[in-house]
Amino acid sequence: MRRVTLIIALLVVASVLAWEFIPIQVIIWDGGFDLTVNVSSTAGPLRSVSCQAFSGREEAEYVLEHLAPPESPLRSTVADPFNGQPLMVNIPLSGRDSPWGRELRRFQFRHLVVIGQLKDRSPIGKLVEIPDCRVSREVSVTLP
Questions:
Q1: Cα angle at 58 between 52 and 62, to 5 degrees?
Q2: How far is Cα 92 from Cα 61, in angstroms, rounded to an integer?
Q3: Range list of H helices, the chain
Q4: Can you give the pTM of this predicted structure?
């Protein structure tokens, strides 16, 4: 009887460990967080400011190179006129967790392009890294 109980206990423990560490079921989550962007300029007062988040560095560098304003309100914000107040940008965040909440994978947009337009209408921009939201939800950018 003792042997049967031990075997059943070991099977239960092995099943629980297999369920957690070889998960057939996973929790997939998708959402985002608000990033506070503080913008200032050493080139003079800014007329307007736009911020846009990107998952890939190449796309962000392309937008910065062409100083293109956001085409969509998704993952971006525009302040026109810019009054010096912080801007809020929603940063996409997603991941997968095991059935007991152990993080298996996590994805967050990592690049932010900030484009400012000076009073004379000339654009200036900067590419900055978005911090991990578990560390900070705020970034300060000085243009140019």
A1: 65
A2: 19
A3: 2-21, 57-66
A4: 0.79
Sole residue written with tokens 């608000």: 34
Structure tokens at 42: 């050493």
Q: Which residues contact 126 (CB under 8 A, 6 or more apart)?
A: 64, 113, 114, 141, 142, 143, 144
Amino acid 131 reads: P
Would you kindly state where each structural domain of the chain is located, as residue ranges? Answer: 26-143
Digit-by-digit pLDDT tens for the chain (144 residues) are: 788 788 888 888 877 777 667 756 778 889 999 999 999 999 889 999 999 999 999 999 999 999 888 877 889 999 989 999 999 999 999 999 888 888 889 999 999 999 999 988 889 999 999 999 999 999 999 998
Predicted confidence at residue 19, as pLDDT, reads 66
- How far is residue 142's CA from residue 33's CA, in Å, rounded to a whole number? 22
Whole-angstrom Cα distance, residue 25 to residue 8? 23
Task: Mark out the alpha helices in 35-75 (DSSP H runs).
Answer: 57-66
Q: CB–CB of 91/137 below 8 Å?
A: no
- Cβ–Cβ under 8 Å, residues 95 and 32: no
What is the 8-class DSSP label of residue 56? S
